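[step 3/7] inverse_fold.run input=structure_tokens len=185
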């Protein structure tokens, strides 16, 4: 297994630790630990793609598992945020429906001998989701020191989730349109 694929697996392994810190109210500075883990996991996404392209290590495993690892990380974070009243349930459901739909299309493509790599809209969707999650975690951590600012920061986080949801839905529609032959097949 090459280094980019190992980084993808590492991202998946980091998810349970991230979830633990998100939900472990008894842990001091839990949002800081969750933020550090999320940023580290997100960076592996950037790094594995960069290394794979630079060293010509692009594999079908990577094309399939890299976006799946992103989904596992982001959906886990969003579910925790719904649990903590930091994200809208409707937005998170829309994001999850898109993620499951596109993953299903990718699996159909694999059965047909094709691999659908992420396009620019999918990458924009991933970046917008990760930026929203990082900003929310940072604001929640800051809010532990400045409680009066927390309601405004929570509202700002909700707006970021709505923006990420918009890009998620748009990218999903584009994926479905561009790959309707896979669905018909």
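[step 3/7] decode complete -> sequence:
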């Amino acid at each position: 297994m090459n280094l980019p694929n190992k980084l993808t697996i590492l991202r998946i392994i980091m998810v349970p630790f991230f979830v633990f810190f998100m939900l472990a109210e008894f842990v001091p500075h839990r949002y800081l630990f969750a933020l550090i883990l999320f940023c580290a996991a997100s960076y592996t996404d950037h790094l594995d793609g960069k290394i794979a392209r630079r060293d010509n290590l692009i594999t079908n495993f990577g094309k399939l598992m890299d976006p799946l690892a992103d989904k596992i990380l982001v959906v886990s974070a969003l579910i925790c945020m719904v649990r903590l009243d930091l994200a809208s349930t409707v937005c998170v459901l829309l994001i999850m429906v898109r993620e499951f739909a596109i993953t299903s299309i990718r699996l159909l493509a694999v059965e047909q001998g094709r691999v659908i790599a992420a396009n620019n809209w999918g990458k924009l969707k991933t970046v917008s989701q990760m930026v929203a999650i990082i900003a929310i975690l940072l604001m929640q951590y800051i809010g532990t020191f400045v409680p009066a600012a927390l309601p405004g920061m929570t509202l700002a986080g909700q707006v970021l989730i709505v923006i990420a949801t918009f890009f998620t839905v748009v990218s999903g529609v584009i994926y479905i349109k561009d790959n309707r032959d896979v669905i018909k097949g």
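[step 4/7] annotate
Residues 3-179 form a domain with the Four Helix Bundle (Hemerythrin (Met), subunit A) fold (CATH 1.20.120).
Residues 11 and 43 are 9 Å apart (CA to CA).
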